[in-house]
Structures are given as C-alpha cells and as structure tokens.
Here is the input.
Amino acid sequence: MDTLEKKTLRYGIDAYQEWVEREGLRIAEGISLNIFKVETADWPRYGVKGAVCHFAGRGDFTNMFVLDIPAGKATAPVQHVYEAIYFVLDGRGSTQVEFADGRKHSFEWGPRSFFAIPLNAKYRHFNASGTSRALLCTTTLAPLMMKIFHNDEFIFNAPFEFADRVGRPGYYTGEGDLHMIRPGNNTWETNFVPDLGTIELTPWEDRGPGSSNIIFALAEGIMHAHISEIAPATYKKAHRHTGGTHVLTLTGGGYSLLWYPDEREFTRVDWEYGTVFPPLEGQFHQHFVTSNEASRYVAMALGGMRYPLTEEHRRIGLGAQGKKMAVSLSVKEGGDQIEYEDQDPRIHAIWLDEMRKHGITPRMKDPLAK
Here is the structure.
C-alpha cells in the first residue's frame, strides 16, 4: 500500500468571510448602524476608501458595502457576478456602466439616488465635487455568490454578458414602467431613481392608515427592493419576514421595536437619515414615527416579486392558495402581520410617551381602547 501524505482537511469554511479577510476590508458590526459614522479604510479593489457592514440580522446571503470616494476622485473599474443595489447618502457624481459590446450608459446622481448595476457589467463611480467626498452604500448578494463559487477570478472576471439585464436606455435617466398590480405589489421597473425622497408612491392601507409604498424591479435581478412611507405621527403594524432585509431610513424620525414571540422585552432601534438595520429572521418589527413629517425607508433583500428565489419568498410577497401575501395577512390567518387590535398593550403606551417627549400630537387612537 502506497504511503499517503497526511493533510489537514479544511472544513466548515465560510468562503465569503475568507474573502473579506483577503480584501483587508474594515468591518462594522451591530444591530443597527448609521452609515455616516462607519469608519472606512483603503480598499484597493475599488481604489477608494470602503468598509463592509455586518449587521446582526443580515442573514446568510446579503451584506452592505460602503464606498467613501474622495473629492475629485473615481473608483477603479470593477465587475462582479453578484447583484448590487446602490444608495447615495451624500455627494454628487456619476456612474458609467460599460457592456461587452462597447455600449455605455452614464447617469448623474445626488443624495437619495438609488440604482442597480446590471449583473457582471463593468462600472465605476465618479465624484463630481472637488471639495467634498461622496458616500455610497450598496446592498449585495456577495455572500451568496462567494459561498457558491468560492473563486475570486470567476466572481470578478467572468467573461460573460447578461444581455437581458441591461434594460432600455431610459432606465438610466430616471424613466421607468409602472405596473399597477395591487396595493403592496405595485411596481416601478427601472435601473435608476434620481431621488427616493420624492418618487410618487401608491397607497397600501393594509400596513396602516396613510401608508404607501412602491416595489422596484431593478436590472432584471433577483433582489427585492421597496420603499415605504409612514404617515406623520402614526405607526405601522408589526410584521416579520426572512432575514437579510436591509432597512435604510430616508426621511423623518422615529424608532422601531423588534422582538420574537417568546420574548418579553423589545429591542429598540432609533433611526434618522442613514440608519440601517436588518431585522433578524422571523423577528417581528414595528416602525413608529415621532414627528410631524412623514417617514420613508427603503428595504433591500434577496428574493424579489418577479423572481422569488424560494417558496418562502413567494408566500411572503405574493401569497399562496388564494390568500393575500403573508406580509400583510394577520398571524391569526397564517400570515406574518399583527393587527393593531392584537398588538401588545405596551406598544401604544410606549409610543404615546415618545410623542409627549417630542411635543407631537398623536394622529392615532389607542386601538385597544374600549
């Protein structure tokens, strides 16, 4: 019998975590983070400063990168076979996307701009200011794709163009196609939104009085994204869903409570523009406005309405067996939403106390009052 060389078997590998270490990326961690306060460091792959945010509720498949582009500078050209949805927190500039046949699309962005990079297209960002930085964050599927392929050369240099992901030219100028499906599912198809603070939304009263939203279909991708608005001095109904949904505050002020059904105490997250927090898998969460300004947030996750990746995504976002989508169906009917009349009695009392602290007149009555 031949003598076999004894080798140590590698197992239990997280290919994504190993890649983060190789990149030398600065890591920010927490239940929630204000992206303006995330410390960045040189990221050679992009040629600017960057960081990666690892939230407690990010799940297994998504993450968030931060790009800090110095005044007058640009990122290095990159491409990758993981999807990426960008949000501009601060600064003004432009992005150029280049395709294998030589076609290019460029668009200018500013604060609260929102866009997706077509899969594996080469792109770079340019800071238009000569005096101020530009700060962008991007929710991606890098963890999923790196765990599947665990090969940097393929992830960042695959010689294939996904022509069906490009979209028509108007999708890069702020144009789009509105698909009126039903409240909660109405969809704006595009690749670029100039300002999430001003885009028109459609009513979605299932989530609460005065609530509205719009779903985005971006770059023919499998990621979900939607923007929701909560009416001033009100709050939404509690709900739950899969992990990894990065919630980013756009306008207004307030807080969220998070809990599991068997927990007595709430976890609280106070938010302002730039605050991000992904609720954990199956964790109930409820959003409360404590100002006279409507509050908007954008949420980004794996599994869109057009291409739900799992049956759970389909159940949550589309519904099953003739029922409403689970995200707006009462838990008493097998869904994932807690109706006002079924919520913990402490919920409304906590909110009223916050409203008193802010000197704001509530626009909702106690749903449990007789």
